[in-house]
Amino acid sequence: MPLLTVDRLTKNFGGLAAVSNVSIQLEENELVGLIGPNGAGKTTLFNLLTGVYEPSEGSVTFNENGKETLLNKMKPYAIADLGISRTFQNIRLFKDLTVLDNVLIGFNSKNKQGIFSSVLRLPSFYRQEAELKERSIELLKIFDMENELETLARNLPYGQQRRLEIIRALATQPKLLFLDEPAAGMNPQETAELTELIRKIHQEFGITIVLIEHDMSLVMDVCERLYVLEYGQLIAQGTPAEIKENKRVIQAYLGGEI
Amino acid sequence: MRKNLKYNLSWLLLAVAVYLGIFVLKSVGLLSGIVEDTLSLIGINVILAVGLNLIIGFSGQFSLGHAGFMAIGAYATAIFTQIQSTYTGFLLSILIGVGITIVVALVVGIPTLRLKGDYLAIATLGIAEIIRILIVNGKDDLSQGIFATGGAAGVFGIVDYANWEVIYIFMVLTTIIIANFIHSSTGRTVLSIREDEIAAEAMGVNSTKVKVLAFVLGAATASIAGSLHASYIQTIVPGDFGFMKSVDILIIVVFGGIGSLTGSFVAAILLGILNHVLRNVQAISDYRMIVYALALIIIMIFKPGGLLGKKELSMKKLFQRIGKGGKENASVDR
Ligand SMILES: Nc1ncnc2c1ncn2[C@@H]1O[C@H](COP(=O)(O)OP(=O)(O)OP(=O)(O)O)[C@@H](O)[C@H]1O
Ligand SMILES: [Mg+2]
């Protein structure tokens, strides 16, 4: 049983089928790429899988240790609680909060504190708070950001903002992580660092990662398997080598006749 | 753990020092009755502003009916202390007001806070007006029924259990509760919703639940302020809790800084002093709302984030600065 099973998923916006009859499967600890021209429906697919939109048709099933959950009508926060996290194409950090607070909020999902122990400042509150802080700092350390704890997210350089968004997503302790164009707007140096970062997360955290990316060298470099979308439809899937040779894909990207 | 104790103790010390300061000034006869009135009014306004700031400044929701919740507390105390004219009765009346307020806030908050957008503003505006009209149509006195709000004439002769000390203690308590709430894990999720609701939900924050929680907590403290107001002033009329009162509180929040509890304190104190100084100037009390509006416009032009923006007085930062030998102000970005 795959970790995530997407079956004939469709999303209509008025007359436009932004995602149309898409079926995909994600296994545990896979690194999968999702590519396609602008407007192909990649972000919409992520939004469907994380509960931002409700599917028009089809189903999304999450399977954790044999326990199946239908995600179709679930709210984003409930899906996040199941262990599915994401980043956004247009960075969505908590801009006026510090780097540390951004990560702490990620941790909140799996580590809820009681309101009464917080308001009454019981010893358990301080203990839990100290523990969460320690774990946040540890996580930031892995990605070399432990020196920016008190920096406001809005004041970070662009590349670090992207990085922080990924760290915040990891703080929710996901089994499945969706990254929407993490390399967008990065220079080659930053892209190279990001490539390493994604590899590192894949290896050290043992989670499944789905990556939307226009930077083909990055995708071909790190992904084990690719899905290709065009006009909302899945037009190809396979290993990077197979996709490179796929006529249908070449046509979609070059826009020419076969 | 040690450190936390140190910060908490210094806050306690500050609270006690201010209390003793006022107490000594009063004992040696330096505080006239009018000054005491001003101090009490400031205390009540701090409670109101801190609660509203939680809703507006921290959770990012817009409420225009804070005075409505204040009215619930005020009338709960006005009526219940007639039935039970003891100090315990007074404290019970505060609890009753808070209880009713929580129910009303849940009824208003749950349906509107599910939606994205400023529906809460409209709903709170409406509920405050409904509460006021209900009160205007209440019974004249207890012989006619429990809902004895005295109609448009109001209630007078309410027992004065709330003196400046009681108000001060409640002010400190409600501030501690709200500040502790904000600086907790749930409090951080409240801030995350203000920053970006979609991202917050994607991080597992149940935004409706958290928004409702902040709203209910803010409303409950307004009810406490209402109870204190009724018992201190001893006379209340429905008009005390109209739309203009909600605007008054809003002005304190905006003036001090949307998202700064310290700012709400500073603004409540400054505006309280201003009111005190100008209390005999007839022209100003006639045109108070115009003066307020002008002050607000000037603030918006020169300091759009309010006096303090989002800055807070923090003992931790204060100690760190003293430790470094610096003598600068301790207000730092939170
Ligand atoms: N909320 C919406 N309402 C209406 N149309 C939408 C909405 N969201 C997306 N679309 C449309 O659906 C199509 C797919 O958009 P989507 O953002 O998923 O593409 P994408 O593959 O992520 O593109 P890009 O590479 O540019 O990010 C586009 O035509 C877009 O205009
Ligand atoms: Mg996109």
Automatic annotation (TrEMBL), chain A:
- A single Pfam family it belongs to is BCA_ABC_TP_C
Q: Which organism is it from?
A: Vagococcus elongatus
Q: What name goes with this protein?
A: ABC transporter ATP-binding protein
UniProt xrefs under PANTHER family: AMINO ACID ABC TRANSPORTER ATP-BINDING PROTEIN, CONSERVED COMPONENT OF ABC TRANSPORTER FOR NATURAL AMINO ACIDS-RELATED
| Domain ABC transporter, residue spans | 4-256
Report the GO molecular function annotations. Answer: ATP binding; ATP hydrolysis activity; L-isoleucine transmembrane transporter activity; L-phenylalanine transmembrane transporter activity; L-valine transmembrane transporter activity
Source organism's superkingdom?
A: Bacteria
Keywords, in A-Z order: ATP-binding, Nucleotide-binding, Transport
**One GO CC term on file:** plasma membrane
Gene3D superfamilies attached to this UniProt entry:
P-loop containing nucleotide triphosphate hydrolases
Gene Ontology terms describing biological process: D-alanine transmembrane transport; L-alanine transport; L-isoleucine import across plasma membrane; L-valine import across plasma membrane
Automatic annotation (TrEMBL), chain B:
Keywords in alphabetical order: Cell membrane, Membrane, Transmembrane, Transmembrane helix
The protein's location, in the record's own words, is: Cell membrane
**Transmembrane parts of this sequence:** 12-32, 38-56, 63-83, 89-110, 117-136, 166-183, 212-237, 249-274, 289-309
Q: According to Swiss-Prot or TrEMBL, what is its membrane topology?
A: Multi-pass membrane protein
- What does the entry list under GO cellular component? plasma membrane
Q: What is its main location?
A: membrane
**GO MF term set:** branched-chain amino acid transmembrane transporter activity
- Is Cell membrane there in the keyword field? yes
The record ties this protein, via InterPro entries, to: ABC_transp_permease, LivM-like
- Its recorded name reads Branched-chain amino acid ABC transporter permease
